[in-house]
TrEMBL record:
A cellular component term, taken from the record's GO annotations: cytoplasm
Keywords (A to Z) from UniProt: Hydrolase, Metal-binding, Zinc
Pfam families assigned: dCMP_cyt_deam_1 (PF00383)
CDD domains per UniProt: deoxycytidylate_deaminase
Record's protein name: ComE operon protein 2
Names of required cofactors: Zn(2+)
Native species: Filibacter tadaridae
PROSITE patterns for the chain: CYT_DCMP_DEAMINASES_1, CYT_DCMP_DEAMINASES_2
Family: Belongs to the cytidine and deoxycytidylate deaminase family.
GO MF assignments: dCMP deaminase activity; zinc ion binding
Chain ranges of the CMP/dCMP-type deaminase domain: 5-137
SUPFAM superfamilies per record: Cytidine deaminase-like
UniProt-listed InterPro entries: APOBEC/CMP_deaminase_Zn-bd, CMP_dCMP_dom, Competence_ComEB, Cytidine_deaminase-like, dCMP_deaminase-rel, Deoxycytidylate_deaminase_dom
Length: 187
């Protein structure tokens, strides 16, 4: 197994945090890093002790779930709660931050924002990041980095396709399945 980059490592942490999300509309995770050390993490969910979307449904106002605190804000507030400075840090996040989180990130002193997926990228937020001298970088997350059985899964699927060919399946019948396997494993 090849060692993954720091960016992929911290992005993996974000995706793991996103699994804790309690909002059913979008699972997001964020990790704040300084000097290659994680100083905080957050996911989108309700306030401590509050009703969760997974239990009571989303509370949507103006197209947004107002029941949740976004992952980026949760990570920043965790630092605030415990007196951890975030200046000169990097924020990794699964999805492009919304405008309100972008403004909080800027005000907190984060210097770099790295996101895995585009999500309603706000032009004004991008402009604010640029004006503030914050580097904004899109680095897609490679899920194979945390799938320790991907090679075995691929071998099994290839074996099944070969067996189907041996049993007489035509190439045009197998083509859609082979295409999906190639897409899934990024071959």
């Amino acid at each position: 197994m090849e060692r993954i980059s720091w960016d992929q490592f911290f992005m993996a942490q974000c995706h793991l945090l996103a699994v804790r999300s309690t909002c059913t509309r979008l699972a997001v995770g964020a990790t704040i890093v300084r000097d290659n050390r994680i100083i905080a993490g957050g996911y989108n969910g309700s306030i401590s002790g509050g009703d969760h979307c997974i239990d009571h449904g989303c509370y949507v106002v103006g197209g947004h779930c107002v029941r949740t605190i976004h992952a980026e804000m949760n990570a920043l507030l965790q630092c605030s709660k415990y007196g951890i400075p975030v200046g000169e840090s990097t924020l990794y996040v699964t999805h492009f931050p919304c405008l309100q989180c972008s403004k909080a990130i800027i005000q907190a002193g984060i210097r770099h924002v790295i996101y895995a997926k585009d999500y309603k990228n706000d032009d004004y937020a991008i402009r604010l990041f640029e004006q503030s001298g914050i580097t904004l970088q899109h680095i897609p997350f490679n899920e194979k980095n945390v799938d320790f059985s991907s090679e075995r899964k691929l071998a099994l699927l290839n074996e099944m396709i070969e067996k189907m060919q041996a049993l007489g399946a035509e190439d045009e019948e197998l083509a859609p399945y082979m295409k999906r396997v190639n897409e899934l494993f990024e071959i």
